Amino acid sequence: MNKPPVSISLSSYGAELVRQRGQGSFVEVLAAAGATHIEWREELLTLEDPEQLANATQSRGLESVYSSPLELWLAGHSTPNPEMLPTLKRAEAFGAKWLKVSLGYFTDNNDLQTLALTLQQSPVQLLVENDQTLHGGRIEPFQRFFADVEQHNLPIKMTFDIGNWQWQDQSATSAARLLGRHVGYVHCKSVARRADGKLVAVPPAVSDLHLWQQLLRYMPLNVMRAAEYPLQGDDLVQLTTEHVATLARLGQSRLEPAHV
Fold first, then answer.
1. What tens digit of pLDDT does each residue of 69-80 get?
2. Alpha-carbon distance 136 to 128, whole Å?
3. How many CA atoms lie within 13 A of 191 on its CB side?
4. 157 within a domain of the structure (yes/no)
């Protein structure tokens, strides 16, 4: 049975530790833990050398996703964010096959033909994520965006962040039902409300894993999935190994023969 690809977002290890150690230091951790993909985080970069990281991942058999906080569409502009092409090229330099950005301010006036021309200038595939904002974290703009993506036959997939829907009080189940067929990458994230009322990412409980299992039923079989929640402990390899195995099992019941 083919196991689905599992990625680790390096933000899971905590911004302070990642900046202190450098993102390249986690390549060995992920490889030893059985992950298939690594997600570089642009906002946590310090002095990393792109070519060095690209070579390190390739030598350990890892593929990479480049995550940028960039918004694809800016308010009041019909053309894509002018930083899109430089960011695609940066992702390429890191050896990434995918670039993950936020949707931003999508309207019916946005120019997808210009976006198509931009995407043709790089082999990197674009993944557009639901973030935690009012304009980029709700279901309806994504429905309209991917209807246009289909109409223009663009090679764009969705990063479906399970936890982020809660920031706008949206149903992850409704989102999966309406958008699941467009998904190319899943950010697995549980969310809890702190005493001060702030929502924060937390490791999954059994009930969360059950929900994730249900959500994956609306998405392509063996879709790539990632941990994007705190992975913090003394033995990062062991901890990461456990979570990689957990995420790899999600959705596998769809492949098992029915018992008669």
1. 999 999 999 999
2. 10
3. 17
4. yes
Q: What pLDDT score does 2 carry?
A: 79
What's the CA dihedral at 51, 54, 59, 63 to 10 degrees? -170
In percent, the amount of the chain with pLDDT more than 90 equals 95
Looking up residue 70, the CATH number of its domain turns out to be 3.20.20.150
Say how far apart CA 224 and CA 160 lie, in whole Å.
Answer: 10
How far apart CA 34 and CA 62 sit, in angstroms, is 10
Domain of residue 223: give its range: 6-255
What is the C-alpha separation between 135 and 156, in angstroms, rounded?
19
Q: If pLDDT is split at 50, 70 and 90, which confidence band does 252 have?
A: confident
Sequential DSSP letters for the chain: -PPPPEEEEGGGG-HHHHHHH-GGGGHHHHHHHT-SEEEEEGGG-SS--HHHHHHHHHHTT-EEEEEEEEEEE-TT-SSPPTTHHHHHHHHHHTTEEEEEEEEES--TT--HHHHHHHHTT-SPEEEEE--SSTTTSSHHHHHHHHHHHHHTT--EEEEEETTGGGGGT--HHHHHHHHGGGEEEEEE-EEEE-TTS-EEEEPPPHHHHHHHHHHHTTS-TT-EEEE-S---SS-HHHHHHHHHHHHHHTTGGGGSPPP-
If one counts the domains in the chain, the total is 1
Instruction: Identify the band that residue 229 occupies on the pLDDT scale cut at 50, 70 and 90.
Output: very high
- Kindly report, residue by residue over 106-152, the tens digit of the pLDDT: 999 999 999 999 999 999 999 999 999 999 999 999 999 999 999 99
Q: Is 260 domain-assigned? A: no
Query: Is 166 a member of any domain?
Result: yes
Tell me, yes or no, whether 216 lies in a domain.
Answer: yes
